[in-house]
Amino acid sequence: QHLDIPADSRILEVETEEKAGRMLYEIELLMPDGRVLELYVDPYTAEVVLRKYDKHGK
User: What stretches of 1-58 show up as alpha helix (H) in DSSP?
Assistant: First the structure.
């Protein structure tokens, strides 16, 4: 499996997180408009479980 991310974004950070007893990757992306997008991804299926803009982003 692979994860498609926008070609014009930049990866800032990748961490493992546990949410509701489920292990996920948290991937922070800097988007072209300057906002930071957080993706929570299942490491086994590459399914994006949650996507949200960082509250400290623009």
Answer: none
Question: Domains in the chain, please, with CATH?
Answer: 10-53 (3.10.450.40)
Tokens of 6: 């926008």
Q: Look at residue 11 and give its three-state secondary structure.
A: strand
Question: Residues 6 or more apart from 20 whose CB is under 8 A from it?
Answer: none
- By the 8 A CB rule, do 34 and 50 touch? no
Q: What digits encode the pLDDT tens for the residues 7-34?
A: 899 999 999 999 889 999 999 999 999 9
Residue linked to tokens 């957080």: 38
Residue appearing with tokens 């800032």: 12
**Beta bridge partners of residue 38, listed in sequence order:** 28, 52
Q: Record the pTM.
A: 0.81
